[in-house]
Prior knowledge:
The protein is α+β, with helices and mostly antiparallel strands. It has helices at 6-19, 24-39, 50-59, 87-105, 122-129, 181-189, 210-216, 225-242, 247-254, 275-290, 307-317, 324-331; strands spanning 3-4, 69-74, 77-81, 107-115, 133-139, 145-146, 153-155, 160-164, 170-174, 199-200, 206-207, 260-268, 320-321. Among the domains are: 66-177 and 223-271, Malate/L-lactate/L-sulpholactate dehydrogenase, NADPH binding domain (Ribosomal Protein S8, Chain: A, domain 1), CATH 3.30.1370.60; 178-220, Wheat Germ Agglutinin (Isolectin 2), domain 1, CATH 3.30.60. The protein has twelve helices and 13 strands. The mean pLDDT is 94.
Amino acid sequence: MPIIKINDLKQAYLNALLKRNMEESAANRLADAFVEMANEGIYSHGINRFPVFISQVDKGDIQLNAKPECVNSFGALEQWDCHFGPGVLNGLLCAQRAMDIAKQFGIGMVGMKNSNHWMRGGTYVLKMARQGFAGIASTNSMAVMPAWGGKDHRIGSNPLVMAIAGDPPVLVDCSMSQFSYGQLQNHVLNNKTLPVVGGYDSEGNLTQDPHELWKTKRLLPMGFWKGSSMSIVLDMMLTAISGGNSVPALTEDRKGEFGVSQFLIAIDLSKTMEATQFSSEMARIREYVLASELAETGQLSIAGSNIDNYIKLHQEQGGIHIHDEIWQQIISL
């Protein structure tokens, strides 16, 4: 795989966006966000998805110059209509708005309708955590996996995303499928077997073969029936809080993954605990967990703790490894 300099990656993104008449300042913000996701080690929901993003722009599903607007306000809760604009920019703007509300009320929530795929959901709660907040977020999707006990697609991957301030911040970004399609694609591109079973093959047997799952699309819900139930209730909450599209509406009415529903919650931790006590308690939790007796793998980490390692790696090697097939797609856009 070639190593692509970060500046070259950003320029490739900008070329594609400006070619499609996106406003220059917004195009720069969007390109920077895509680059940041990759630089922090998330290739599946950044680099690998950029060609898909552009294909949705070309189909008219994503309106590059659309501006989100607040359409309802209920104290600490606001509803925003994103008018089918880029999900990444919607997420960044609404994450900041949730924090602004939280500074006033202690907690702030923004429900977003008519948005689009925001790539790495962790981006928005990590933004909160880096500013001393706790963040919670979710988004729905088309039906992309079977409900527990079913065979055809009826539920979305509907990730639950959480982060909390710390040194470093802790970040958990969990698709309700055992493996997101982005991670599945990573394993297909690199021809690597999944570390645990990820779904069913064409004969209904559990498999770790990513190529087989890429064909059958019968992904396993995370935690079996638990992940299935979480996916369903998250879709209900997303639809009710945002006033937007549900998984059935996206699947049957729109027949595409655009116009999704999302929410972002920010909690101002400066109001919930004194700063020294907060720092001490977070450190104690971290140290207690990391003092575990190691299992056979010999590895133990806390979610989000490897981000700085990816940034350092990319600095040392002078750029980011990108699968040649994906890079050729990006520069052809």
